[in-house]
Amino acid sequence: MDTTALLEGQKHRNALAAATLRTASTSEVPGFDGYPSGGGSAKNLEDLGIQPDQEVVYNATAPKLYEYALRDEKGTIITDTGAMAAYSGLKTGRCPKDKRVVEEPSSKDDVWWGPVNFPQDDDSFLLNRERAIDYLNIQKRIFIVDAFAGHDERYRIKVRIVCSRAYHALFMNNMLIVPTDEELKNFGEPDFTIYNAGCFPCNRKLPGMSSSTSVSLHFGRAQMVILGTQYAGEMKKGILTVMMYLMPKRGLLPLHSSCNEAEDGSTTLFFGLSGTGKTTLSADPKRLLIGDDEHVWHDDGVFNIEGGCYAKCIGLSREQEPEIYDAIKFGAVVENVVIDDSKRNIDFDDKTITENTRCAYPLHFIPNAKIPARGNHPTNVVLLTCDAFGVLPPVSKLTPEQCMYQFISGYTAKVAGTEEGVVEPTPNFSACFGGPFLVWHPCKYAEMLAEKLKATGAQAWLVNTGWTGGKYGTGSRIKLKYTRAIIDAIHDGSLAKTEHEAMPGTGLLIPKEINNVPTEMLAPWKTWADQADFKKTVNGLTKMFQENFDKFKDRASPELLKAAPQEWA
Predict the structure, then answer these.
(1) Taking Cα atoms as reference points, which of 567, 560, 556 lies closest to residue 402?
(2) Which of 50, 374, 420, 525 is the most exposed place for a label (fewest CB within 10 A)?
(3) What confidence score (pLDDT) does residue 11 get?
(4) Residue 70: what are its φ and ψ, rounded to 5°?
(5) According to the model, what pLDDT value does residue 408 have?
(6) Beta strands in 430-512 (DSSP E)
(7) How many CA atoms lie within 13 A of 275 on its CB side?
(8) What distances in angstroms separate CA 441 from CA 117, 119, 205, 244, 407, one per listed residue?
(9) Cβ(188)–Cβ(39) below 8 Å
């Protein structure tokens, strides 16, 4: 072997790495100050730190990505409906405790530091990024996906994914908006880049690291680095976090929500964390789907951030959710599901690998999807919660002040499987129904929402998809057919017109009747056998609300504070 050639090759690679770090330490690195960037030729691989002689698969189609995954990624198979079945390794959910945001001059005064955004220094970020690039450089091939986040051309950002797995490339090809040939030709510099080296662990000895997993965002450098987790949802939620930071800088309101549209053009926003029903309830065959998870509310209406949907698969059936069930076909990616060895059909009830089984598919796989995914100002705003205590009514009509209080509180339950270590519903307050993805202080998003509600006159509702007849372990989960009937009554206007009564203590306005919903279910205390236990439980939850809201009191108006639930005497 020619040792001279080997040395020259190593010198060349060292020069590339040095050039990458030099570029990263200057103001030439594209950041949000220059957003949106112009067109021109695609970014050189040398600028990414990638070896020029490495095989690079760029914006590949689904068939090609299938070929790579089936050949090179152990455990990947094709299901009987044609979907790609992939496995994410040890991590089958997000790792919020391993998320870091770099504390740097351009964004440090904007970030809500604390329980959601843990700080990281710039040097640690660069060392993690170098580690990720080194890992990507020793792979026989890498995958690059250039695509958009945002269905409104005025506000979208250009995203670049650099990864080592075909599964990850197909996932983001589904979740982002694929450029046309002309758009790809003029794509130019990305506004944000994700280096996904999740197959390789981070150096846990670095300052700020809490495990072998690291998910780091640097707003100044407009980059994200993933190490130690192959769970594809980290990339999706990383882009949401970026939009949660960037959009308010332009006066736009980013929301962790789903959205659909009626024939007359009226739209509904659904807020809620994973497992509360956003994806399921927005996939309504009678309405057009704008999106299932991430949206932006601007001066002219709303638009979807994503180009696809990321639906939970556990317990999935065609009878309950036909649109989602039928979307699991060629081009879709199912994650961590159990599949029959011979028939290759998915057992949607099997939780052996995880309860957080998922499917990522393009938006156009839903027959009634609206593309481009844009809509008018919302007519209704629905806050979804999964009440594990079983004391909240199935639906409540909210005053504007109650809406703001519930939005800031973001009460729900962590549903099993959505995060590492969560195996059963656990009471949880997540500000703005998207706490893990917030960058600014929650009150900033809440104030922007208040302005939108005031300007448009949208009606707000609180819908409980959790328990009735008792707390978790005693009562039962509210049936999906009843929740759908409630949503139908919201959309046809009958629920706004029906007579309501105030629930003691909470002050929530409860309808006295809804078509196709048992009347006794509407008032939760009537479904409990032990009334004393009900009052004790509801007062316990009220206290939790009040204690949680203490950290927001300094920025809350007197009207907002009056909307807080009180003790049931």
Answers:
(1) 560
(2) 525
(3) 40
(4) -65, -35
(5) 96
(6) 459-464, 467-468, 476-477, 500-502, 509-511
(7) 25
(8) 11, 15, 30, 11, 13
(9) yes
